[in-house]
TrEMBL record:
Belongs to the HAD-like hydrolase superfamily. This is Phospholysine phosphohistidine inorganic pyrophosphate phosphatase. It comes from Oreochromis aureus (Israeli tilapia). The lineage of its organism: Eukaryota, Metazoa, Chordata, Craniata, Vertebrata. It is found in: Cytoplasm; Nucleus. The keyword Ligase does not apply. The gene is LHPP. CDD domains: HAD_PPase. It comes from the Eukaryota.
Amino acid sequence: AASVEVREEIDDLFTGASAYWLKESDLQLRFCTNETQATREKFVAKLRRLGFDISVSEVFPPAPAAIAVLKERGLRPHLLVHDGLLPEFDGVDKTNPNCVIVGDAAENFSYQNLNEAFRVLIGLEKPVLFSLGQGRYYKETDGLKLDVGVYMKALEYACDLKAEVIGKPSPTFFQSVLNDMGLQPHEVLMIGDDLLNDVGGAQHCGMKGVQVRTGKYRPIDERHPTVTADGTVDNLAQAVDMILSQRGH
């Protein structure tokens, strides 16, 4: 089975075709993403326009997982997220919040909004902070951008607490994808551009991890002191060729 990391700024022209060839084989395929600037439905619609044959049930972003945690623990969130993600939380009780959820809010990461989230947390007897992923930065067409992990760390520091990460590289998040496929970690390969959250997170759970030299990849990743990818390829098409050729032997 294969899991693939996808973001909104996909820059690999072979991606849709590559996913097609994986799906045409008998391999299971899931798309694991820390995308938190759009609902899952809008995200899938964009991927379909880019050539993916993909259904909503095959995509695993952090927001639905977070909502399940809120229901399970009876929590009411204060949201510091992107406007595009708000519809995901339409059915969630947000009155008198007893936790904070922070996602990739982009321009919504103003001093006023961060301070409001800080005040909610600091005013709670038992403050709970959820972070939808913990990435440091990501790449879009106009360059690198700070990701949610930077702002998560600011709130952790200000409130002297540790956030609960929902999304990659959380082992719970990866395990939910494995459970959905009905597979063990050693049967699954993760492909992504983020050495720490995609490759390292997958390896920590017992999966293999392959890094693509697209997106946020940097050459220094191949000399990282603690995380070594099981393979590094130029793009997703090359990763798919590698997987399918190995299965032929």
